[in-house]
Design brief:
Oligomer: single chain
Order of helices and strands: HHHHHHHHHHHHHHHHHHH
Keywords: Membrane, Transmembrane, Transmembrane helix
Protein name: Oligosaccharide repeat unit polymerase
Number of helices: 19
């Protein structure tokens, strides 16, 4: 049991580096802003990301390289190429004195280094990544809880985040995504591992992650959890997966670790009506905000009364895109330039700013990841591939609701998907291994 914790240490080290670079911002913000080590310092953030890259360096660096999923890698390379072309040759923002092209180049350089180290990372990293991700998300959750408990200005019921100062600040969506990632990787590890300590850590972090999602009050993350359950029901309940789940539940350890905490938490909540009322208030607030967003979307951009400003911004962005489509369709061929207009609607911004070619590569990439995610959820050939498939769900929601298509919050996960989401390859390897195991052993020569 303890031996499993330290087996494959070099692969766990690489997985830790991936976690820091790929999903490390919640923990980085805890050390940076929560513990006041370097409040709002971009240098500190860059140093932490660089540490992740250093931890990813394998012993076979420059000696062996591993394949990518070409269905994802080709449109991803096309999209990055379009972004770089527009960055240098069609960049209206460059005339702004506050604009920093160097910052953009640093982001792309770090993405390039991450991509290189991913193709250098051995495939065995997939076997050790999920326990590392569970521990990593758990520590990030604890960091958020510690910051809230030590912040005298935080009131239970407000959106949880790590505050930049004593007044206001922080981004709850970063911690909400960490909570979602924790829920998914904990459930995967709980049913795929026989290690008692792993199961115990998974259960504890599962409830911590659910609490994080609830405290951050992120509509997108709550919607992603609902979509994840729907994806599992629609695509994941195949005969082989149902059989594997039944086999897992036949183990006494799984039964105890899965149901005992649920019963204990249910009993505790039943004895705390105030806490139940607070949770009910969270969901009422979530439904009210969702209704506000729907009302704002239905009113359109000409409304005098704005109910939800976030939804209103996307309505305005859609109206701008529609006007360009009908009034100046030629602009859709070339686009308006690198980060010309922030639409908070990435799929539309890809077309509005980067033209037909940019939209094609970005939309094609999203389409291919959707296909690969469905396949990974259905086949469940590797825990890491399944985890990435579910992790794409909140990213898919963001494609239509938040951010810019050039953000590293899209680019870094896309690189992970291209490297480790290879269900067809893994399925062929499983069949080849099964066929080799079925071959009779040769008779000894007398």
């Amino acid at each position: 049991m303890l031996k499993d914790l330290f087996s494959g240490f070099q692969y766990k080290r690489i997985a830790l580096g991936i976690a820091i670079f790929f999903m490390g911002h919640p923990l980085i913000f805890f050390f940076r802003d929560g513990l006041k080590l370097a409040p709002q310092s971009s240098v500190f953030t860059a140093a932490c990301l660089a540490l992740g890259l250093v931890l990813m360096i394998p012993s076979t660096l420059f000696q062996r390289y591993f394949s990518l999923n070409s269905k994802l890698a080709i449109p991803l390379a096309g999209w990055v190429g379009v972004c770089l072309f527009y960055l240098f040759l069609f960049n209206p923002s460059a005339v702004d004195p506050s604009y920093s092209r160097m910052r953009e180049l640093i982001n792309y350089a770090m993405a390039g280094a991450f991509a290189f180290l991913l193709i250098s990372a051995p495939d065995k990293v997939k076997e050790h990544a999920i326990p590392v991700f569970v521990l990593f998300t758990f520590v990030a959750n604890l960091g958020l809880f510690y910051s809230l408990l030590t912040n005298p200005h935080y009131v239970l019921g407000a959106r949880a985040s790590i505050y930049f100062d004593d007044d206001y600040g922080g981004n709850p969506h970063i911690f909400a995504r960490n909570g979602f990632a924790g829920v998914i990787c904990c459930l995967i590890l709980l049913f795929s591992s026989n290690n008692i300590l792993y199961k115990l850590l998974s259960i504890v972090n599962l409830f911590a992650s659910l609490a994080t999602v609830l405290l951050t009050q992120s509509r997108g993350t709550l919607m992603a959890l609902v979509l994840a359950m729907g994806a599992f029901i629609v695509f994941g309940l195949t005969k082989s997966n149902v059989k594997a789940i039944k086999t897992a539940f036949r183990k006494p350890s799984t039964m105890i670790f899965f149901f005992a905490p649920i019963i204990a938490v249910g009993y505790y909540l039943g004895s705390k009506p105030q806490l139940l009322g607070l949770i009910g208030g969270y969901f009422e607030q979530f439904l009210a905000k969702l209704l506000d967003a729907l009302v704002t979307a239905g009113q359109g951009s000409d409304t005098d009364e704005i109910v939800d400003y976030s939804a209103y911004n996307r309505v305005v962005s859609f109206s701008m895109f529609k006007n360009m489509l009908f009034d100046n369709p030629i602009a859709l061929i070339t686009g308006n330039g690198y980060k010309f207009f922030y639409m908070d609607f990435p799929i539309l911004e890809a077309a509005y700013n980067y033209g037909f070619i940019g939209f094609y590569f970005f939309a094609r990439l999203i389409y291919e990841i959707v296909r690969e995610s469905i396949l990974a959820i259905r086949k469940m050939t590797s825990p890491l591939g399944t985890y990435l498939a579910y992790l794409f769900i909140p990213i898919f929601v963001s494609v239509f609701s938040a951010g810019q298509p050039t953000d590293t919050t899209f680019l870094f996960p896309f690189l992970m998907f291209a490297r480790f989401m290879q269900t067809e390859k893994e399925e062929k390897e499983e069949k080849a291994a099964a066929a080799a195991a079925a071959q009779p052993e040769p008779l000894p020569v007398s």
